[in-house]
Amino acid sequence: MKQILVFLLFAAMLCWFMFAPIYKHVLIMRQAVLQKETDYLLEIGANGRHGYIDAAMMAESRRRLEDAGFRGSDVSYEVTTTSGAPGTDPTRPVPRGTGIRLEMRYPYDGLFDIDRLIGISPAPDGGFLGAAGMKMSEYVP
Q1: What is the model's pTM?
Q2: Whether the Cβ atoms of residue 60 and residue 95 lie closer than 8 Å to each other
């Protein structure tokens, strides 16, 4: 009986050590994709032709993130500028030299629930992955 118990515990620990890095890898990949999308939106939004990040750009971003395995409806965007002007209005682009800041958030989606198996308390339910960046606008009217 002891041998069976030791075998089961050893097998469970072996499985845990083999598969634990996989879900951490998913977390790292989600973070990298989110940061890449943030940088891309900033590059497009702050270029000389735009000077804003509008709802259409965010919708395209959601579509690209859905292609990468995210749920587009769960991604949140927050656009601010260093001048306090709205950075989402295509009729009033942000002028050159003003910073456009973008923050994107995506929920953890219970990714850490598996940690309960080894006694680690998972991240809180309201936790988010986040990516942020800022770029100076190049728009010249």
Answers
A1: 0.78
A2: no
